[in-house]
Amino acid sequence: MATGSVEEPNRRDFIVIAAQAFAGVGAAVALWPFIQQMNPDASTQALASIEVDLSPVKEGQAITVSWRGKPVFVRHRTGQEVQAAKEVRLGDLVDRSARNDALPESAPATDPNRTKKGKENWIVLVGICTHLGCIPKGQSLNDSRGDYGGWFCPCHGSHYDTAGRIRRGPAPRNLEVPTYEFVSDSKIKIG
Amino acid sequence: MAGHESTYQPKSRFERWLDERLPIARMMHAQFVDFPTPRNINYLWTTGGMLTFFLGAQILTGIVLAMHYLPSAHDAFSSVEAIRRDVNYGWLIRNLHAVGASMFFLAVYIHVGRGLYYGSYKAPREVLWILGVVILLLMMATAFMGYSLPWGQMSFWAVTVITNLFSSIDSIVPGLGTRIVQWLWGGFSVSGTTLTRFFSLHYVLPFAIVGVVVLHIWALHTVGQNNPTGLEIKTKSDSVPMSPHAVMKDMFGLAVFMVLFTWFVFFLPDYLGHADNYIEANPLSTPPHIVPEWYFLPYYAILRAIPNKLLGVIAMFSSIILLCFVPWLDTSRVRSTKYRPLYKGFFWLFIVTVIALGYLGSKPPEGLYVFWARVFTAYYFIHLLLVLPIVGVIETPRPLPRSISEAVLGAAGGPVSVGAASAPEKR
Hints:
B: two-stranded antiparallel sheet; globular
């Protein structure tokens, strides 16, 4: 063993470092299946789409359907509710992004951007509060709809307006608008 | 402390034979029979033994319950009902386990409060204290996953709300929080897949707790127990052997606590739970008012007091993580609050704050409740981050007794007569 001066790295040092690196990479690779097994599997991910008949839903009523294990709100808005949603200025919103899966992230959260053109009286939303995942109240006629006439999450007090946009409370984002299309005048396909 | 001289003498030939090969009896004797215990510890020092008892009891009743429980979304709810109605003595074992969790937390909160009051976290007990915070966090994770298993409405929505806490990471790295939450769930919402993995982890985590408890006791027996004066053991007369003195006291404390425990088990088994948990989980309907178990209410109040999602989550987690830094946040030169006239008031205000947050956490998040939750949340952090460092500097502590013996025996126990006063206790 050399004393005092700095030792030159030799072949043994190289072998030790290489072996450690090899073992480290091997351990990381072996860990991967154990992490990945917890992710949603292919059968869960297989994107199921559903068709919903809107004809029985009268103006002012709403229905909740289940899609990918999540509740989806479909509300037939009154002219007053549509008007109220359209009059909101963008500057008054907590979250200014449309959160519409069919539109880019940068689309502003105007009422037209959260509905389909010519079908503004219908709004379709994933009914999961963006705070901590509770299901907001407001689907049933005798529910509390919060201070903005849309939905109210009873868990932590988030108020959504008639376009499902967060107006007050701890939720950070507007209710998500899933990808959907009108397959006929009174039927939509979600997913 | 670990180096005190043990009086262990192997008595039989077998003990001598074993002692030369595995000196486990010698170690147990040194650590749990003639281990020097401060002579002045009060009944608050019996909580450690209680906690060991409850850890063992929860594991035992848990193993039995797992023999009858079915961890699937379809069967979980009805199998818990079957345990309560059909399984022989299932009602008893299930109640022992459910109420036992509450009693475990009650004892642990008294244990932590005692540590805070008597400065048991101060040098050289920092590692001991941090291991305690780790145990507390593991207990919380275990209790949370255990609560999901009956698969009632409260179980389901508690899992939904708590796992969604991680989605707040989305506001730092977009998409990452959602990925983490879906990884935890194994799907796009809480489902039977989530239940099964929680069952697996709920079974294994208590054994991790046992491991950390062993480290906690090891650290305790290395630095020695604190006591109400906060003074170290200086002479032999400051201490008594753990057995029988401390052991008998522990057993009496435990017996009294068992009266409370069994009273709940036999007469009020559901009082500490929520009635909604007897409705089977329904992913399409949130109960009008979600509350966690009572032992999580203060943290829940902190979460809801802050109107920003990410900051609320950060505040909730840091309310516990901050405890790890208390040994360095507290600048006082004396350990025990008994000798800290100014800090004493702040300490009790802190206790009132935690209890008030617990009350507010059980109330709906509106009106005055939110206002007061914010006030008390503010004080919780002010206490840990400002009061502890500042009061320690500006306060003049009351004079400390010269030794544990003097504190116990008064003037007669002064250094001169120490030998005489403690002579009858000579070991």
